[in-house]
Specification:
The protein is of the alpha+beta class. It folds into three domains: 325 residues, Rhopdopsin 7-helix transmembrane proteins (Up-down Bundle); 162 residues, 2-Layer Sandwich (Beta-Lactamase), CATH 3.30.450; 154 residues, Histidine kinase-like ATPase, C-terminal domain (Heat Shock Protein 90). It is 60% helix and 13% strand. The strands form four sheets. Strands 1, 2, 3, 4, 5 and 6 form a six-stranded antiparallel sheet that branches. The chain has a five-stranded antiparallel sheet with strand order 9-8-7-11-10. α1 packs parallel to α5, α12 packs antiparallel against α13 and α18 packs antiparallel against α19. The longest helix has 93 residues. The radius of gyration is 55 Å and the shape is elongated.
Length: 844
């Protein structure tokens, strides 16, 4: 059956059990109401295992010779079991013939009228019925509550079915109607079957049940068969009163077998973590089943002077113990509690004995010396001095008992404190792991301990270090991080033992997890968690004393794991920082070099772009005079040829000489123009002057204007408003690059038409340069980013976004400042303020 079908089957059977409880509840309530309105027998009785025993009697019944503990065997000549199934059993004013079996074996019959409803005085019976109904409610609440919390496990399902059947039986305890009797016959055998189901499921599933799960089905089949025969008994010709005892003894026998199975499994697994749950279940079973079975057997064989249902009042302790064990994976140390309670009891008894001895001794002294001990003053004084004498003894005894039973906890607290203080200063994973192993083996007294850490590269858990006796297989064991056990440790986030997987429904996961415990031969595995990450686990062997690892040991291990997870993460982080520090200086130097190279490449790229635009303008400026000189040279060649001809008239020869003179003059003007352009270009670039030099800003602006004249003369008017400014010391080539970049940006903004105003004036300690155009201006967003590297408003391929950023950097390195003033549709002004002398280091 697949898990989904299994869950559906469990839900269906759980619903059936609850429905059966509700049916029993209705039958019980109906029986109580019927009793309150109908005539009753002249005595109270309780029935079980086919035996109906009389308890309290009316005077008429006593006069007829009936006594308490007599067995009622027939009414009106009909066997009691069959008579109880009849609908109209009693009629007011009509006598019935009751036959009882006396304890000496005699049968006594008497005609007795029923008791009218208004004079029934059997109040204790009503109170008992109500109390038993309350126990039934507790049963049902525990079963349903545990089922709601743990629906994915088989134990809550088995508990719910058991609690449902027992609750139904408890509701039917006071239902003496025909329907109640029939439902009781059906329910009793199933108590034994469901108890067998529960005891073979929790706290351990025996191996023979795992191999032969059909045994549970056999128990349910026998219960169903007995229930069917019990209902059909009057119609099958079976002698009356046979099947009811068989059903009861079937349940009693299975219950005793269940307790025996639990005791046997607990003995075989005394080192398993489930032994705590076995102890709790044994205690609950002993306090619940044994009293009920004992009273029931006394009722069957000897008769009881009181309703045997009284034994059911303490029956709720069993489901409470089982439910607690299922919900809580880690139980209190029941044996330790028992031992400490016994020790406290013995100490109290000893002190009480000494106190009694002191009183007796004092009485003897008083009698010996004839002291008036009846005086109140003497009594109070004696009591006061006795308390003073015994109180230090009581305190001392209590401390001794506390110290004896709490010595391990004290040692654990000391160990945790020492480890916490030590791990603060540990920066080595190996040192941390070794410290954990020493703490576990020495403090807890185990055979061995091992720490496995996660290798993130290979995604496996492998042993990091171990202490104690570990075989070769365990010392070299590795587990993948996606192993089912790793997932369980990560999800449950608590220590796990082999027995914690007994309730795992998936057999593959159960066996895979058990294999890890078998491989490591470990009793407990504790996860090392840091946040949501599983860093590793601590494998702990068995204790040298042979005892199991209890709640205190598990708490200590979890605390160690939490402390070590933080320490391990800190150590790993420290290792990474140390490795980074080893290479940090070299990496910073390399990155700085890369940034410098990148910066130089960006500057060079912008220079090349500006140079491209500059060359285009300079080429245009050079072409005019060079073309003019070239044409003059052609005319000069013609004139020289004419002069060389013989027979030329003197007047013609003189005219040609004058023309040649004019050509040479005009050619010289053209070559002077070319020379001036080349001189301005060389001055602009300052390729031969890499040091600081003294310049006039006005002259440098004029030289730059000459070089960009080709971009200006098409429709852009330049207005020079130069002031008288002092000379400054700077890197002229860099400043010329700034001036050219700003002028070319103005030309781009004006798109061939507009005005560019260039103003200079002295300021305090330097010179101010303003380059203003009447273009479209800038928006606030563009203005705020205009000096950012790679920011441009030009189309792709027409600008790099580096010109103004580089220019801004050049001005700042000279110790000056540069900013922009602009508004949409009101033009743009770039302002530069330069000091009289730039710092050599900053400017470079």
């Amino acid at each position: 059956m697949n898990p989904r079908a299994t869950l559906r089957f469990r839900r269906a059977t759980a619903a059936l059990a609850i429905a059966w409880v509700l049916l029993a509840f209705v039958a019980g309530v109906h029986g109580q109401l019927l009793v309150s309105r109908s005539p009753a027998t002249p005595f109270t009785s309780s029935g079980a295992a086919g035996q109906v025993v009389i308890h309290t009697l009316t005077p008429a019944a006593e006069a007829a010779g009936f006594e308490a503990r007599d067995r009622l065997i027939m009414v009106d000549g009909e066997p009691i079991g069959w008579w109880l199934r009849s609908r109209d059993r009693l009629t007011a004013g009509v006598a019935n013939v009751y036959t009882v079996l006396k304890r000496d074996g005699r049968q006594v019959s008497a005609d007795l009228e029923p008791v009218p409803p208004d004079i029934q005085t059997f109040l204790p019976q009503r109170v008992l019925d109500f109390a038993i109904a309350l126990v039934a409610v507790i049963y049902l609440a525990i079963g349903v509550g545990v089922w709601r919390l743990k629906q994915d496990r088989p134990e809550p399902w088995a508990l719910l079915i058991f609690c449902g059947v027992v609750a139904a039986q408890l509701f039917l305890a006071g239902a003496n109607t025909a329907v109640g009797v029939v439902l009781n016959l059906i329910t009793v055998p199933f108590i034994g079957a469901t108890a067998f189901h529960l005891f073979t499921t929790y706290p351990n599933e025996p191996g023979w049940i795992v191999r032969h799960p059909q045994i549970r089905a056999i128990a349910y089949g026998l219960a169903a068969l007995l229930a069917a025969f019990g209902v059909l008994e009057p119609y099958l010709g079976i002698p009356a009163g046979i099947l009811a005892p068989i059903g009861t003894f079937f349940t009693v026998g299975l219950s005793l077998i269940c307790i025996g199975i639990l005791f046997y499994e607990r003995r075989n697994r005394r080192r398993d973590a489930a032994v705590d749950r076995s102890d709790v279940m044994l205690a609950g079973g002993a306090l619940s089943f044994l009293p009920v079975i004992s009273v029931l057997m006394v009722h069957y064989y000897f008769g009881t002077p009181f309703p045997w249902h009284v034994a059911l009042l303490g029956f709720f302790m069993f489901p409470a113990a089982v439910g607690y064990g299922i919900v809580r994976q880690e139980l209190f140390e029941i044996r330790m509690v028992a031992k400490s309670s016994a020790a406290y009891g013995a100490a109290t008894l000893a002190i009480t004995g000494l106190f009694a001895f002191l009183i007796t001794f004092t009485d003897a002294l008083v009698a010996r010396f004839d002291v008036d001990a009846r005086s109140p003053v003497f009594s109070v004084a004696f009591l006061f001095f006795a308390i003073l004498l015994f109180n230090p003894l009581r305190v001392r005894m209590q401390r001794l008992v506390d110290g004896f039973f709490d010595r391990d906890r004290v040692a654990y607290r000391v160990a945790v404190r020492e480890i916490s203080e030590a791990m603060v200063s540990m920066l080595s994973v190996k040192e941390i792991v070794d410290r954990i192993l020493v703490a576990v083996t020495d403090t807890m007294g185990v055979e061995g301990a091992m720490v496995l850490l996660l290798d993130e590269k290979d995604e496996v858990l492998r042993p990091e270090a171990s202490r104690g006796s570990w075989d070769e297989e365990a010392a070299s064991a590795t587990f993948r991080s996606d192993h089912p056990l790793c997932r369980q440790l990560w999800m449950r986030r608590t220590s796990l033992s082999r027995g914690d997987f007994d309730g795992e429904e998936d057999p593959e996961i159960r066996e895979a997890c058990r294999d890890v415990f078998d491989t490591l031969d470990a009793e407990l595995l504790v996860p090392i968690l840091f946040g949501v990450d599983l860093l590793g686990l601590i494998a702990v062997g068995r204790k040298l004393s042979g005892e199991r690892l209890g709640v205190d040991e598990r708490q200590l291990l979890r605390t160690l794991a939490n402390q070590s997870s933080i320490a391990i993460e800190n150590a790993r982080a420290f290792d990474e920082i140390a490795k980074l520090n080893e290479t940090l200086e070299g990496r910073v130097e390399g990155r700085t070099r890369e940034l410098r190279d990148t910066q130089a490449q960006l500057v060079q790229s912008e220079k090349m772009r500006s140079l491209g635009q500059l060359v285009a303008g300079v080429a245009h400026e050079l072409n005019n005079p060079i073309g003019f000189v070239h044409a003059n040279l052609q005319l000069l060649d013609e004139y020289v040829g004419k002069l060389m001809r013989p027979g030329m008239e003197p007047e013609d020869r003189e005219r040609i000489r004058q023309a040649i003179r004019k050509l040479l003059t005009r050619s010289r003007e053209g070559t002077d123009r070319v020379k001036q352009i080349v001189e301005d270009l060389r001055t602009f670039s300052r390729t031969d002057q890499a040091d600081l030099q003294e310049i006039c800003v006005n002259d440098e602006l004029d030289r730059t204007l000459v070089l960009v004249e080709a971009r200006l003369k098409d429709g852009i008017q330049v207005i020079r408003e130069y002031g008288t400014v002092p000379p400054i010391r700077c890197f002229a080539g860099q400043l010329n690059q700034v001036f050219m970049n700003l002028l070319m940006n103005s030309c781009d903004a004006l798109e061939g038409k507009g005005e560019v105003a260039i103003r200079t004036r002295p300021v305090d300690g330097g010179v101010r340069v303003e380059i203003e155009d009447d273009g479209p201006g800038m928006s606030p967003e563009v203005k705020s980013r205009v000096f950012d590297p790679f920011f441009t408003t030009k189309d792709v391929g027409k600008g790099t976004g580096l010109g103004l950023s580089i220019s801004h950097g050049i001005v700042e390195r000279h110790g000056g400042s540069m900013w922009v003033e602009s508004e949409p549709n009101r033009g743009t002004t770039f302002v530069i303020e330069l000091p009289l002398e730039a710092s050599v280091e900053d400017a470079r």
